[in-house]
Every structure is written in structure tokens, then in C-alpha cells.
Design goal:
It is built from one helix and no strands. It is mainly alpha-helical and 53 residues long. Keywords: Membrane, Transmembrane, Transmembrane helix.
């Protein structure tokens, strides 16, 4: 007996799914922040800034 319940193996895929979702979320936040920073830099230089809406 190893001390783990029999249902332990069902939780491992959920861990990897949530870890992958967290990595994607962090990457999206970094990309959005980089875009916003470059847009602000352009605006401060006096260049025309077009928003994608």
C-alpha cells in the first residue's frame, strides 16, 4: 500500500491542464502588455496611433 487513494491518478491530467492554461494566460498578458507599452511609446513620440477596434 503506497498511501495514495485509488482516485489519485484522475487528478494528474487536471494539474497539467491547469498548468498549461496558466502558461497560456501569462503569455497572453505579456503580449498584451508589450503591445500596450509600444502603443504608449508611439503616442508619447507624437506618432499616429490606431486602435484595432
Amino acid at each position: 500500500m503506497n498511501g495514495y487513494p485509488a482516485e489519485y491518478n484522475n487528478y494528474q491530467p487536471m494539474f497539467w491542464q491547469s498548468a498549461f492554461s496558466a502558461i497560456i494566460g501569462v503569455a497572453m498578458m505579456i503580449a498584451l502588455g508589450a503591445w500596450a507599452l509600444s502603443t504608449v511609446k508611439k503616442a508619447l513620440k507624437g506618432e499616429d496611433v490606431e486602435f484595432p477596434l
